[in-house]
Task: structure prediction
Amino acid sequence: MTDQHQKLTWRGTLAAWDRRLFDLVAQRHWPGAERVLPALGRAANHGVLWGGTAAAITVVGSPRARKGALTAAASLALASATINTVGKWSVRRPRPLLEGVPVARLPTVPPWTTSFPSGHSASAAAFTAGLALESPGWGAAVAPVAASVAFSRVYTGVHYPSDVLAGAALGIAAGFAVRGLARRAEQARAVPGAERPAADAPALPDGAGLTVVVNTASGAARGAGFDVLRARLPRAEVVECAGEEVEAAMAAAAARARVLGVYGGDGTVNAAATAALRAGVPLAVFPGGTLNHFALDLGLTGPEDTCRALAAGQAVRVSLGRITPAGGAGQGVRYFLNNFSIGAYPELLRHRLRWAPRIGGGPAAVLAAWRVLRAERPVRMTLAGRPRSAWLLFAGNGTYQGTGPAPRRRAGLGEGLLDLRLVHGGGRPGPRLLAAAFAGPLSRSPVHIATRLRRLRVADVPPGTPLAYDGEYAQAPTALTLDALPDALTVYRPR
Result:
């Protein structure tokens, strides 16, 4: 028997089994499925079902779930593009013959594309895989729906079982591909800058001498990264706290530890940096919160990086921004690792924090933006001795890359300069902020000023004006000084 004859024989056998399984599914009576499965298949046409699911998760889900919804949508787009441009036109398999399929199951408009592979199955599997890789809970909730959509393609007679299996495999591969690309992008974003090495940072290979404070209110103690910390640093002391206990726990831990560790997002890291600075101890940051801008700009993509740096005693010196009220000292002074702002953003943050517990984070952000852009007024204050009216005053700890009044990425944290951006008052906040977003990163325009400096005096701030620093909200003093503290803090980071 020749090789060609063997190939034809195997193909014939597989095709025969494929048809038998198709007949078994398509011709059998499945109680309760006649109304559900055809409707589910129609709902998945053009990705409508999955787009609605992603939108719902974005509105009601956590930040991690929203990230999963974005990954799922990107995975679906990749799978759909691959199937429709390469898959179907490479194989050109005809659709199944509909002999024996009940008329009630048949689609109203028969599909006109080729049969292999199943695009619906690929989209369902890609969406579910992308979602599950970032948010396993939501992925598990969506998986039965995705499996039902895939099964409906055979049930309604439009695909062979092998079409469905191949489509599902390609969809899962698309989910992993998109997740891999996203991880690479995060790592590329987390390229460290030219901070000065700290030669005196102690090496703590098993965590002895390290006290890690975990803010449980953010759910940080329930992630996979926390398990990594426990496994890699078994002798580290771990303190779990929440709410008003966090600052006191940070101060107490910094007073007794050789190294203060923090597991959480930017707000929690800010409290830890303040405690470490005042106690004169190094800081170990384990990214584990909703926002991790400081960790990413430092070059930390996860707790594994911090564990590796602690084991080797590798650390750098970073700058801090300082907020000093007029005549203030001691507890009146605040610090910021990322940025400080007065104007539209603090008001938006204030409204979002007020409404999020009642309606959820996503709707609260939309409602807060509508409220601020509709009714907010510019802040009148004195900057460096000159009266100003501003929609937004932004000061970054180090130079941020990109345009706009409040950008999000820095090349390094050792510069020791404030990145100052001012959006002039006048007109409406929406057009002004939008115009500033298109201005250059260090430019002067009729609506936007951007420059770098070491110190700025702010006076005549109206009482009750809010300010924000590192995502935290507070009332601004009537006068304050912003300045940069070069090489103020030692922070662990692998080379």
